[in-house]
Amino acid sequence: MPSLLDSWHERAIHPGRFTRVLDAVTAIAPPRAERLLDVGTGDGSLAVEIGKRVGAKDVQGVDVLIRPRTVIPVHHFDGLTLPRPDASADLVTIIDVLHHAADPRRLLAEALRVAGSSGAVVVKEHYAFGAWSRGVLWAMDVVGNAAAGVAVTAGYFSPKQWKELVRAAGGRIEEIEWPLEIHGAPWRWIAKSEYQFACRLVRA
To answer: Which CATH architecture has domain 2-203?
Structure first.
C-alpha cells in the first residue's frame, strides 16, 4: 500500500507542489543567503533549488531519517537540537516539518538560534480550522509521507497557536503569505489554499 500511495503522489501531486512550494519559500526568503540549512530535508532536492535562487554556496540538511540517496550533505539529528553552532546559517528553512516535531517550540527556537540575529528562518506550514481541515491535512500527510515512513502526528496549528508558538520560541513574524496556493485543481478544492502558509521569521 505505501508504494501504491507514493507512486500516485509522485504522479498526481508532487510536481506541481514542488514548484509552488519553491516559489513560495524563495519569494519571502532573504535575497542573498550564502549558508542554507534545511531542517527535515528528505533527499535535499528542494533545498538545492532554494539554494540556487538565494545564491547559497553552502547548502546542507538535517533529518531524523537519512534517505539512502541525497543530493546534499545531510546530517542526522534527534528532531530537537540542531547540530550547528549559533549564527552558522544565513537562512534556515523548515518546510512542512514542524507539525511532525515532538516539541515544535524547541525546534523553532533552535532554528532561530542557528540563523542568529542577522539571519532568517522561513517556514512553510499548515493552518487547521477544525476537525474537517485536520482530517484533510492528515490524509494528505499520510499519502505524502508513505514512502519515507515518516510518522504522521497531525500536530497542525491554528493561526492563534502559530503566533503563540513563534512568540514562545523567541521569534517575530516579519512576513507571511496566506492563503497560499500549493495544490493545483482538483486537489486545492479539498486541500484548500487557506490551509497553507509560508512566513519569514527573525529573532525577537
So the answer is: 3-Layer(aba) Sandwich (3.40)
Give the integer Cα–Cα distance in Å for 56 and 93: 13
d(CA 142, CA 145): 5
pTM: 0.89
Which segments within 40-165 are labelled E, that is strand?
A: 58-63, 74-76, 91-95, 120-126
Q: Rounded to an integer, what is the distance from CA 39 to the centroid of its chain?
A: 7
pLDDT at residue 26 tops 90: yes
- Say which DSSP state 18 is in: H
Nearest residue to 126 (alpha-carbon basis) of 110, 118, 116, 137:
137
Looking at residue 61, its amino acid is G
